[in-house]
Amino acid sequence: MVEPDVQIDEIDLALLRSLQADARAPISALSRDASVSRANAYARLARLRESGVIARLSACVNPYLAGLSLAAVILLRATTDAWPRWSSFAEAFDEMPEVEFAADLAGEVDMILLARFSDMDHLRSFIENDLRRLPGIAGIRTLLVLNETPKRSWLLPRSSRRGKRRDRRD
């Protein structure tokens, strides 16, 4: 796990939430949302980029409207000889445009993928031609996604103002 070297405060969180909502928002809107000056917003955004908190700004594409109407969660078991080599699997998953998310797991299954497809033939081809040909895969279990929520990008921590309970003493 990566531990951040930068401290994130409420102003940083406000800027990050605004950017998640609209990565093309002008600095005036970002500074207004965070209740800081434009200069402060510029400086904070630069610090967040330099520290790696903001990895990149990108478009959030609705996969269903872009022709990827079938989503699947794919659970993978690795052979015992290949299990420790997550890096070799990670490189392969990075090369597969269908894979939106991949993770190495501890537990009953070794890896999980969230992948998107145009149709069932696309999914079948992916399993047969991409996953089954990966050395070290011992088992594949596919679960079709029927509905999804929430529809947002990566989560941010809750605001400490919203997360704290008020102590009511009469």
Automatic annotation (TrEMBL):
Domain HTH asnC-type, residue spans: 8-69
GO molecular function: sequence-specific DNA binding
GO CC annotations on file: cytosol
Key words of the record: DNA-binding, Transcription, Transcription regulation
Family annotation (Pfam families): AsnC_trans_reg (PF01037), HTH_AsnC-type (PF13404)
SUPFAM superfamilies: Dimeric alpha+beta barrel, Winged helix' DNA-binding domain
InterPro entries: AsnC-type_HTH_dom, Dimeric_a/b-barrel, Tscrpt_reg_AsnC-like, Tscrpt_reg_AsnC/Lrp_C, WH-like_DNA-bd_sf, WH_DNA-bd_sf
PROSITE patterns, per database record: HTH_ASNC_2
Entry keyword annotation includes Coiled coil: no
GO terms classed as biological process: response to amino acid
Protein name, entry field: HTH asnC-type domain-containing protein
Upper classification of the organism: Bacteria, Bacillati, Actinomycetota, Actinomycetes, Micrococcales
